Amino acid sequence: MKILLHICCAPCSIYPIKILRNEDHNVMGFFFRQNIHPYTECLKRQQSLEHYANIINLKVIYQEGYDLEGFIQNTVFRESNRCLYCYHDRLRSTALIAKRGKFDCFSSTLLYSKFQKHDMIKSIGESISKSVGISFYYQDFRSGWKEGIEESKRLKLYRQQYCGCIYSEKERYFA
Fold first, then answer.
1. 37 has which bridge partners?
2. Strands annotated E in 8-157
3. What is the pLDDT of residue 145?
4. Residue partners of 165: CB distance under 8 A and separation at least 6
5. Residue 31: which domain range?
6. What is the mean pLDDT of residues 57-85?
7. Taking Cα atoms as reference points, which of 157, 155, 144 lies closest to residue 15?
8. What value does the mean pLDDT of the chain take?
9. Considering its fold, how many domains does the chain have in total?
């Protein structure tokens, strides 16, 4: 299958790409930017992904622009439930690009992280699949958590310490 894989960062992409390629899928990445704050953090993650994609010969679509204001406007007063909006925004964008690009399906490296709300991601992906008209490829990649971390360290990839949004940065460092 031809899969468009939403990629949140290089380290989280290692294991899912390995597994999908081992299953003989044709994988292309999509880096969604506007949920990653501050902008300097977004650039670090993108540069790390560009480096890793070059190493493994992965084609990646990089989201243009940086709609910080849109992200904040859509999460303000819903900060405690911001992940629902963020997952939906990222997965819907991926699905729309996948459909336009005639991919067979879309998926996400969010399914790799043991820190993400896995059941919510799966449910949103399946719902978007129905509304957009393209299959959501679900696979629980969390079993490869340690392997992905070890490989990212071996490759000396930039490893961020929070999910991406300004709220998760605060939760990580202000405690």
1. none
2. 26-31, 60-62, 105-108, 135-136
3. 97
4. 35, 36, 37, 71, 75, 82, 86
5. 2-173
6. 96
7. 144
8. 97
9. 1
Instruction: Identify whether the C-beta of residue 136 lies closer than 8 Å to the C-beta of residue 88.
Output: no
CB–CB of 138/16 below 8 Å? no
Closest CA to 25 of 113, 135, 110, 132: 135
Residue 66 in this model has a pLDDT that exceeds 80: yes
- Residue 85: pLDDT band with limits 50, 70, 90: very high
Strands of 17-86 (E only): list them.
Answer: 26-31, 60-62
Please report, as a single letter, which amino acid is at residue 99: K
User: pLDDT at residue 151 above 90?
Assistant: yes
Q: How many CB atoms lie within 10 A of CB 49?
A: 24
Structure-token pair, residue 5: 């894989």
CATH number at residue 73: 3.40.50.620
Nearest to 136 by CA among 89, 98, 85, 86: 98
159: which residues sit within 8 A by CB, 6+ positions away?
11, 149, 152, 153
Residue position matching structure tokens 């059941």: 119
Q: How confident is the model at residue 115 (pLDDT cuts 50, 70, 90)?
A: very high
Locate 139 and state its tokens. 């696979």
